[in-house]
Structure formats: C-alpha cells, structure tokens
Amino acid sequence: xxxVLVIGQGGREHVIAWKLKQSxxxxxxxxxxxxxxxxxxxxxxxxxxxxxxxxxxxxxxxDVTLTVVGPxxxxxxxxxxxxxxxxxxxxxxxxxxxxxxxSKSFCxxxxxxxxxxxxxxxxxxxxxxxxxxxxxxxxxxLVVKADGLAAGKGVSxxxxxxxxxxxxxxxxxxxxxxxxxxxIVIEERLVGQEVSILALVDGKTIVTLEPxxxxxxxxxxxxxxxxxxxxxxTPAPFATPELIDEVIExxxxxxxxxxxxxxxxxxxxxxxxxxxxxxxxxxxxxxxxLGDPEAQPVLMRLKxxxxxxxxxxxxxxxxxxxxxxxxxxxxxxxxxxxxxYPESYESGHPIRGLGEAxxxxxxxxxxxxxxxxxxxxxxxxxxxxxxxxxxxSLSEAKRKAYEAVKCIRWxxxxxxxxxxxxxxx
Length: 425
What we know:
Belongs to the GARS family. The chain is built from 14 helices and 22 strands. The protein is an alpha+beta fold.
C-alpha cells in the first residue's frame, strides 16, 4: 500500500486528496499544509507548500511513493527539481517547464514557435513605452497581463485606452503584484466562449480530461473584477469531441513538441485556457496544474483510479493506461467566498451548516480557505468552499449544489447565483 503526499491548501488539493484516498492502492494521504477539509479526508502536515527541502525530507521519512504538487507557486519555484534530485517520484513540471505559467512572455514565445493559435501580443518592461504603445493604437479592446504569477488576478480586460493605461500603471508603476509586474504582456482581446481543456502529459503522451468551464468574474453575468474562479461545471457542451480533437492536434501536441525541442520537456498537467473565437479555438494562457475550481467537478466525475493515473504520468507510462472512465452525469461547483473578495476580506468567522450540507446526496463540500480554530471551522481565505454536486443534467447538478449552499452560513458569505447558466442546459 502506498503513501501519497499532496502539496497545497486549496479546493484543488482537497479534491485531489479525497480522490487519491479512494484508490485501493493508497494507504495514507498526507496534505501539506492542507485545510480544515483535508483534515477530515487526509492527514494534514504543518509544512508550507513552498518549503521544498522540508517537504522532500518528509516524503523520504514517511515512505511517500508519489507526491502531487497542487498549486503553481511551488512548481514555478522548482519543487519538482528538488524532489527528483533526491530520487523521489513527483507529479508536476520542472522549474524550467513551469515557466509556461510562470512567465506569460515565455508562454507566448513557445506558442509562436509551435505555431499555436493565440492573440497578437506585445511585451514591455518600461511603463512609458507601454503607455505610448497604447496611446498610438486605434481604440480597440486590449488585455494587460502581469508577466509573472499573480494568483489569477494579474489580468485586466480593458475596453478603452484609458482602462489599458490605468492597468499598466496599476501593474508596473504601483507594483500591485510586486515583481510579477516588472514585465507585462499586452494582447488583443479575444471574443467568444471560454473553455478549459486540461490534459495529463508525461513528456510524450497526452491524455485529456473532461472539458470544463470556469467563471472568472466575481459577479453574476460575468461582471465585476477577475478572481481565481467563482465556480465551474463539466461537461461543457460546446466542447465537442471534434473540438477536443482539434485542440489536441493544433494546440497540445505542437506545444509539447516545442517544449521538448526547447530542452524543457513537460510532465504534469497542461491546462489550456481557450477562447472559442469565430476563427476557431485560440489559447488565452497555459497553466501547469489543475484548475481551481475546475478540478472539483472534473475529478468528481472521474471513475478511474487517480493514483494509478498520476503515478503513470510521473513515470512516463501514460500510454500503458486504459482509457479514462467518467461518470456520465454532470457536475457543478459553486464557490462560496468571503465578503470583500477578491480585494481585502475578514477571516476567522465560524462556518455553520457543513454537516447538514454533507448529508445531501451526490454532493461534496470541498474546502479551500478554511482552518480549524478551537475545534471550529473558520474562514481563512478569499475563496472558502467549493460546493460540488452531480446531477443527471447540468440544471439538476446546479439545483443540488445551490441547495447545499443554502445550508452553509458565516458572516459575509456570498457566491454567484448563475454558475453553469452559460451552458443553457
């Protein structure tokens, strides 16, 4: 029986730990540092997700067979390299390969070499040059992005020149995201439906997961500021088998080849955020880990053994696996957030009704920003819970998820009310 270590403390890590625990091959699942939810479904370990040396030592001391790295920050910092240098099996890309998410300009360069369809873009290291560029252009919608990691918040979708210039100053002059904004990428704004295609890659073989759609904007109708994601659902009906085939052929395979030719072979999750434009699918960005909250509904539907899958991927043996099995039902995840998110918010409020929600059929409450204080579950982050339900249709899964949402209360709790409505089930 295997011991597994999951690194991270969000909703994505909770669903990974929960799913790994279901494997008949797995004995113990450790989660570092985890949250109040992983404390129920796994064994929390009080080590920061970015303390790679201590985490590797823990894996050695506890006979960990497989380590799964959830969030992007430790991946970009090189945690996989640390584990591999000690001969430990770890699922996730190397530091050099994780630059696909860690640097938007590097990502664009790889896409250019791979001839992958994406938005036209321009890179700047000087705010004066960036502002001049915007001023001299025609009035067209633009997207301004911090080059480095900004927890999903370093992207401004701008309708006017004035908004774009304000975004440049916010990122580069006011240093809203610190060093992540020393370089920026300005892109043309793409129009269409957004969809997330997540694939497991072992360097050579690519296995796609069921497509999902995230909801980035804070409020109903896709209004308000960008967040890390306010909910997700799967399947996404417009992500047809034909579209998936096109994405694999035109986007994923060329990217994996380009990464190998670049000397940065990719192993881990390759997450393509796509815009389905009138000219076909175009890549908005790549992430190098499972999406959060997309991981919750996607893994809720996965019937195959996640431990076997991730172990095979980390050993370069994905081609030996049988085809993945999926629950044919739909899944909807609704994120409950703290008042004030994505800006500043108060934490430490006790959360009520978790037991009541847990008793509802086909529903699981995944914890993200929670912790235990004096034996009580309290909110400790901006995105607090991901209430995820299965249903025979998307509308039924949505109804069940919001039924569970109604059970749960804490001071300032809120959520979007329209998760999955884009699918018009």
